[in-house]
Design goal:
It is a single chain. The chain has 299 residues and is mainly β. It is 0% helix and 39% strand. It contains no helices and 27 strands. It is globular, with a radius of gyration of 17 Å. It starts with 19 loop residues before the first strand and ends with a strand.
Length: 299
């Protein structure tokens, strides 16, 4: 039987968090952990789920996001907003866990799409323009009868199980092609794998190293972060299989866990690490600016 280790860093296990307070203040939300990274459609803001709601980076400054302070998990963005799972804020009317939710206004309001009170989908990703969702399901529920990889093309109303042939190792990351619904990538202990048939068959495409983070660019190239003595950061053309190194800002002993590309300025990348560091590059990794240091916000 396949083992599924959903959306975690290679060096640590997921800590399932309790529901959090929805009390708001002018103070920045403590960065307890990071469970995603996404730019807004206009490319102006970077959204970071930090355990109690969202932290927002804009014009060199950090601010608290809008809406209830939900503990978002599996946070992933499309050109219409973001999708997520996780746990509701304390005092919220939503059931725990959230199931699958969507926001089109940066978290000010969320809409439950499916599975409320049934499952927390840590391993969740969406096609930026296709809006096709893929999820690594941790246990059976009313929509998914078994553990495994599923996809939905109708925002979670219906889910189809993928065979995942070719995947034997533990899974640490998932990413979906921005436009091609049938193309999904998984990061494992043995490298990055790509499927072009809705996750039914996978072939190795990335370095033969443990993968900690994956993301597709707007042009459909795959960004891959690896861990280990020769850890690295590469961009792979999924058609030609050619790869190009990107300079990583991550220091030895830390691990990249999320990455995102600005949809407007494609040379701008953001990465987040296991030790709660966040970096931004505006020249595709030639130079990096650190905007969070060990969970401490920098403006």
């Amino acid at each position: 039987m396949k083992r599924f280790l959903v959306c975690i860093s290679i060096i640590g296990a997921i800590v399932f968090s309790a529901a959090c307070s929805n009390q708001r203040s002018d103070e920045l939300i403590p960065m307890v952990h990071i469970h995603g990274l996404a730019y807004t459609k206009d490319g102006e803001r970077l959204l970071v789920p930090v355990h109690a709601g969202l932290a927002v980076y804009e014009n060199g400054k950090w601010a608290q996001g809008q809406g209830e302070l939900h503990d978002y998990m599996g946070f992933t963005a499309s050109d219409e907003g973001f999708y997520s799972s996780g746990h509701p804020a304390l005092g919220s009317d939503y059931s725990n866990p959230l199931g699958l939710v969507k926001s089109t206004n940066e978290g000010k309001h969320i809409t439950v799409l499916a599975l409320e009170g049934e499952v927390d989908l840590h391993g969740l990703s969406v096609g930026y323009k296709s809006h096709t969702l893929y999820a690594l399901n941790p246990h059976s529920n009313s929509k998914m009868s078994q553990v495994g990889l599923y996809y939905s093309e109708d925002e979670g109303k219906n889910w189809t199980n993928s065979s995942m042939l070719g995947i034997q190792e533990q899974i640490a990351a998932i990413a979906v092609h921005p436009e091609q619904s049938s193309v999904v990538a998984l990061g494992t202990e043995a490298g990055a794998y790509i499927s072009q048939d809705y996750g039914n068959t996978f072939t190795l495409i990335g370095p033969n190293q443990p993968v900690s983070a994956l993301a597709f660019t707007m042009d459909g190239e795959l960004l891959v972060a690896t861990v280990g003595p020769n850890f690295g950061f590469v961009k792979i053309n999924i058609e030609t299989k050619q790869s190009a190194d990107i300079t990583s800002p991550v220091q030895a002993g830390d691990v990249m866990i999320y990455m995102a590309q600005n949809p407007v300025n494609k040379e701008e990348l953001a990465v987040a690490t296991d030790q709660k560091n966040i970096y931004i590059s505006k020249d595709t990794g030639v130079t990096w600016q650190q905007i969070v240091n060990n969970g401490e916000y920098k403006s």
